[in-house]
Structure formats: C-alpha cells, structure tokens
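Predict the 3D structure for this chain.
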Amino acid sequence: MEFHIRPAESRDCPHIMTMIRELAEYEKITHFIKLTEEALLRDGFGESPWFHSLVAELPEKERGDTAGGPFAGYALFANSYNSWTGRTLHLEDLYVSPQYRGKGLGKELMKSVAQVALKSGCSQIHLSVLKWNTPAITLYKSLGAQNLTEQPGYQVMCFKEDALKTMSC
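Done. Predicted structure below.
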C-alpha cells in the first residue's frame, strides 16, 4: 500500500484530533485528553506554530470509512533545545491506525521526521514511549534510538498545570 507523507495543513485538524483520540484509547489514557480541535488549529497552524505535524495520506481508492479520514497515521513534534548539543526535535506522537500497522508506515513516518530534524539543524530527536508499548520500542530501537532511562539513567518528569500555578505564586 502506498502512502503520501506530507506536512499537515489546517484543514487536517479534525482528522488529526480523531487520531489523537485513537492513540489515547490505544494507550488507555483517554482521561488525559484536554486538547480541543480549536486549540490544535490555533497552536499548530497560526502565525507562530507551537508544533508541527506530518500526515500519512491514503491513496484516494484506499480511503474508505477510516476513523482518521484520509489518513493512516501522523507524527506531531516541536522544537526543543539541549544544553549539550543544541537544537533538538521533541517527537510527541507517532501514530499509525491499527489497520495500517505492520506495513512499514511507522518507519516511513519516523524517517520523514528525521529528515525534518536534520533539515532544521537538529542533532537529535527526543521522545517518550510507554514501557509496555513493545511494538513502538522495537521500531525505535531498530532505527537506532537509545533508551535514556537505562544509560545514563534519566527520568522523565512533568510539571502539570496545578503544579505550575502553585509554583508561580
């Protein structure tokens, strides 16, 4: 099956939001979703976007009635900075709808993200993956990813909104 990977456009937001919900269902964390389609549109497609996205568009004849509409998957990422190496790309999501898994699409999306990173002058891509998500871990390791929780032993931390509010007082 052929896929066309391209930068997402504002008109793609409803389908990207649907796939974000699919991803949350797969990861069993739908209760974490606070994002709205309006915020996605504002934050990714305004004058100064906070994130960028690639979509894997299905050929016209293959689209049918898929939850992601015309898409089989997406990648969502943002610029970051590493104090040791400089420009870094943070990959927030790499998602392939269940019916398209095992066809090499995750690898192709990842390659496209790597091309964007290199073109932007990034020296690395950072991401988080749930420790039970063996298919994703296998994919990332097969492409050369290193697990930073093993060596040098980083722990991923997060300050959520309540903590930010408490801290800023």
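The helical segments are 13-26, 37-45, 105-119, 134-142, 161-168.
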